[in-house]
């Protein structure tokens, strides 16, 4: 973990949200520390994605608060939360498949600068170099002139992460970062991803169903169960807990 470890980056307190009779968050308290990789595990429908959606402003909790670097961000617009330093990567990479990898990156840079005018040149030298450096960080610079649609899923995931990093976040929230990646490639992709986050000094929270991935890449694990956090701790302890094995891992 980086020097920022032990600094609380994100602080969630008392989050509650219900959808009809479904309890998706029921008093969620969680701190995320600078430099850490925190995995969220739990059965389907436990409320893991709901938590990410609240933290990024896509859902407004009925009660509770989220603070980021000591600023209240609860239910702030997603764009503003992104600007403050929380980025999001989804299960399905959000790429323009007909554009090249570099064009996708340059569009991300333009969006970051809130520059959408198509008549202004996209290809600015400083930004281009910065975007290529980000592609290098995720080991994808050699693919920059290929169409995003022709690359295997593992590369698309990494490029999606590079796009998220273009927003210069301090925290990246990810929904199953390696889902859809061939099992032979999963560890390689995650290895590059985690190294890129460490180098960019970005903390992460990732929802994960693959316990080998959690064991190897998370510094801490939070276990979700029907809208509550059942347990938080280092993977070595949490993944060997009898209750966690029974309710989540299925032993
Ligand atoms: N916008 C919404 N409207 C209605 N119900 C919702 C909404 N978002 C989530 N839910 C419900 O809340 C519960 C928690 O959903 P959530 O997606 O957070 O679970 P999860 O733990 O991420 O599950 P999975 O592992 O399957 O992705 C589910 O029953 C889901 O159907």
Automatic annotation (TrEMBL):
Domain ABC transporter: 10-251
Name by which UniProt lists this protein: ATP-binding cassette domain-containing protein
Biological role stated in the UniProt entry: Involved in beta-(1-->2)glucan export. Transmembrane domains (TMD) form a pore in the inner membrane and the ATP-binding domain (NBD) is responsible for energy generation.
SUPFAM superfamilies: P-loop containing nucleoside triphosphate hydrolases
InterPro entries, sorted: AAA+_ATPase, ABC_AA/LPS_Transport, ABC_transporter-like_ATP-bd, P-loop_NTPase
GO MF term list: ATP binding
Superkingdom of source: Bacteria
ATP-binding among keywords: yes
Key word Nucleotide-binding present: yes
PROSITE patterns found in the cross-reference section: ABC_TRANSPORTER_2
Keyword terms, alphabetized: ATP-binding, Nucleotide-binding, Transport
Pfam families noted in UniProt: ABC_tran (PF00005)
């Amino acid at each position: 973990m980086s020097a920022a470890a032990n600094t609380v980056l994100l602080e969630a307190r008392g989050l509650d949200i219900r959808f009809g009779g479904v309890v998706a968050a029921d008093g969620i308290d969680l701190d995320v520390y600078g430099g850490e990789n925190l995995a969220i595990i739990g059965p389907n429908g436990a409320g893991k994605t709901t938590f990410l959606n609240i933290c990024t402003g896509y859902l407004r909790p009925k009660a509770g608060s989220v603070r980021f670097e000591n600023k209240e961000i609860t239910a702030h617009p997603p764009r503003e939360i992104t600007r403050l330093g929380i980025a999001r990567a989804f299960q399905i990479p959000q790429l323009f498949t007909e554009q090249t990898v570099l064009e996708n990156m340059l569009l991300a840079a333009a969006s970051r600068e809130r520059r959408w005018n198509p008549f202004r040149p996209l290809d600015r030298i400083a930004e281009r170099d910065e975007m290529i450096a980000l592609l290098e960080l995720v080991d994808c610079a050699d693919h920059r002139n290929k169409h995003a649609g022709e690359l295997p899923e593992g590369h698309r995931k990494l490029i999606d992460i590079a796009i998220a990093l273009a927003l210069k976040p301090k925290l990246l929230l990810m929904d199953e970062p390696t889902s859809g990646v061939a099992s032979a490639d999963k560890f390689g992709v995650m290895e590059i991803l985690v190294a890129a986050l460490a180098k960019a000094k970005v903390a992460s929270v990732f929802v994960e169903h693959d316990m080998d991935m959690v064991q190897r890449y998370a510094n801490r694990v939070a276990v979700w169960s029907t809208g509550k956090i059942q347990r938080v701790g280092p993977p070595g302890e949490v993944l060997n807990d009898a209750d966690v094995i029974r309710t989540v891992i299925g032993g």
